[in-house]
From TrEMBL:
The F-box domain, residue ranges: 1-43
Any matching Pfam family: F-box-like
SUPFAM superfamilies: F-box domain (SSF81383)
Lineage: Eukaryota, Fungi, Fungi incertae sedis, Mucoromycota, Mucoromycotina
Native organism: Hesseltinella vesiculosa
Secretion signal span: none
Listed name of the protein: F-box domain-containing protein
InterPro entries: F-box-like_dom_sf, F-box_dom, LRR_dom_sf
Organism superkingdom: Eukaryota
């Protein structure tokens, strides 16, 4: 082992989970030197106890200088001013501090000065300093690569604050503007932002304000560096077609577009809109990833669908041969805006279109989506179905409008989607103890001995035997055995009497369990056995997780399951 060059050891350790680095540190001096840098480079904190343990480790030597990235994975972590001072003093080379935590006994003036003085190399601004741009803008602004500020702070920085003529936030590539109701994002702010931050590639903001009446479209300067745009809130009452035209002119090089419409009602006449969703995406010739969230639209006759020109959009999306480059697409809407007599054998996405996608998400409405239901239901025939979607990496389907008799069949998914890595299932029922390996043997396809799935999210899924809809035990053991790379499991409002995971040699990066319904399983009701030792007060519970290790075990599944595009590229 001592003969290996450091470069080879670095390659090995780059593929080693952090939990397995400790033995590497104690292997030899050479391995210690390489592994210790890898161990401290990126720190993820899931509890206050872990934060305290980090401070103790940093107090023993000079390892704090090796820490470059810290992420707080839960907002429940709180610490005092002195504890923050200690963290800042011991980690002088920190580049990113991600997430917002709370400080007790905070001295605002001392806090801001220490922040700028200690963390001179930051490229990602921690959330708790976002309200003091006057304290850090001159010192840290030019070196930041990512930033999240509310729209009022951005307006102050870009439009009000007197900055030197040559001042620029030229390193910023990722910008998120939050709207807290004080000053909505408007076109003057977006124009000023593109001038001060000329290299933004990823931009997120809300559209909650009507357009400026005097804006000259011919004077709009395209932001050619922006390739990813997320509209996290889009109020359709404030000039939908006008905003679509502005976005088309301002961001013509988009490869990623995601937006969420917030309301059913549009005030205005949209019989002949000049610019719609259809005209926008049709003219974005580089667009590869498109995600439409209409979860708050409940009326199938809503004017929103006319303003979006949804029928023309559907035809454009499914035209053969393809006239677009879409490889990642999702459509989530709690009502079906399409006429049942339109003659299309699908609602939004056809099988031919879906077969060309690497990421796909959709709400299922009725039997017209039968081609999609055949993906996820139990195979009805032998031998194994030959139709596969071998490009699909991410799948997120919502069966809220289907009868619970539509049982999802994991074996069918594994057969048809051999490269699937990220799977989210919402509002389905499933057999509580499915065994894919045994099923494949019975189907004369024992050659398939595993599947590469990495992440499984179950939301409002009911575990029940085939002859009843009553909640039953959900035993995930056989599915996990069939998916050896699966290390993230999120269960939200899953209806089952008990949860069983018996994989004593498996390690998981995250297991999150949360339920707001009486029939569901709670995180604190599960008996947790790690490496043969009990780590849970629920010692008498019939729900058991028996595995080697879990990096993060919590009740925050709802946070992840509320983001259907989390793995979309």
């Amino acid at each position: 082992m001592r003969e290996l060059p450091n470069e080879i050891i670095q390659q090995i350790l780059s593929r080693t989970p952090r939990r397995d680095l400790v033995p590497c540190i104690t292997t030899s001096r050479q391995w210690h030197q390489v592994a210790i840098h890898r161990f401290y480079d990126r720190i993820e904190l899931n509890s206050l106890a872990q934060f305290k343990a980090l401070l103790r480790c940093l107090s023993y030597g000079t390892h704090g200088s090796l820490v470059h990235h810290i992420r707080f994975n839960t907002a429940e972590i709180t610490f005092t001013q002195d504890e923050f001072d200690t963290l800042a003093r011991w980690t002088p080379n920190l580049l990113t501090c991600d997430y917002t935590v709370q400080l007790r006994e905070m001295d605002q003036e001392k806090f801001a000065k220490l922040f700028v003085h200690r963390w001179k190399k930051l490229t990602l601004l921690p959330g708790w300093h976002a309200d003091k741009p006057s304290e850090w803008m001159m010192a840290l602004g030019p070196q930041l690569t990512q930033i999240t500020l509310d729209s009022l702070r951005f307006h102050t920085v870009c439009c009000v604050t007197l900055l030197p003529a040559n001042f620029s936030l030229g390193n910023l590539t990722t910008v998120t503007i939050k709207d807290f109701g004080r000053l909505p994002t408007n076109t003057p702010l977006l124009e000023a932002l593109s001038q001060m931050c000329p290299n933004i590639s990823t931009l997120t903001f809300d559209i909650m304000e009507p357009p400026e009446e005097d804006l000259d479209f011919d004077a709009v300067q395209p932001a050619l560096s922006v390739v990813s745009l997320t509209i996290s809130k889009f109020d359709p009452q404030i000039g939908t077609n006008w905003w679509f035209e502005y976005l088309q002119l301002k961001y013509p090089r988009l490869t990623y577009l995601s937006f969420k419409i917030m309301d059913d009602y549009i005030d205005g006449n949209y019989e002949d809109p000049t610019s719609t969703l259809y005209t926008l995406v049709k003219n974005l010739t580089d667009l590869e990833s498109l995600h439409i969230n209409l979860q708050q639209i409940t009326n199938p006759q809503s004017d929103v669908f006319e303003a979006l020109d949804i029928e023309s959009f559907r035809l454009w999306l499914n035209t053969s041969p393809r006239t677009h480059r879409i490889s990642s697409f999702s459509w989530f809407c709690p009502c079906n805006p399409f006429s049942l007599t339109s003659g299309h054998p699908y609602t939004m996405t056809s099988a031919a279109t879906a077969s060309q996608l690497s990421s796909f998400g959709q709400t299922l409405y009725n039997n017209r989506d039968g081609w999609l239901l055949d993906w996820i239901r139990s195979p009805q025939r032998h031998p194994v179905p030959t139709t596969t979607f071998d490009k699909l990496v991410t799948l997120d389907v919502d069966g809220r409008f289907l009868s619970l008799t539509y049982r999802v069949d994991m074996t069918s998914i594994f057969i048809r989607m051999p490269k699937l890595l990220y799977l989210t299932l919402r509002n389905f029922s499933m057999t509580g103890n499915e065994d894919p390996a045994t099923k494949l043997v019975m189907m004369d396809d024992s050659r398939r001995c595993s599947h590469p799935l990495r992440s499984l999210h179950l939301c409002h899924v009911s575990a029940s035997p085939s002859n009843t809809l009553e909640p039953h035990t959900l035993d995930m053991t056989a599915i996990l055995d069939f998916c050896p790379d699966l290390d993230q499991l999120l269960l939200f409002n899953c209806l089952c009497r008990n949860l069983i995971i018996d994989c004593p040699q498996r390690a998981f990066s995250q297991v999150s369990i949360l339920s707001f319904v009486p029939e569901g399983i709670q995180c604190n009701q599960v008996r947790l056995i790690l490496d043969g030792k009990s780590h849970s007060p629920a010692s008498e519970s019939s729900s058991v997780i028996n595995c080697k290790a879990i990096d993060r075990f919590d009740s925050e599944a709802y946070i992840h399951l509320s983001l259907p595009q989390q793995h979309y590229s």
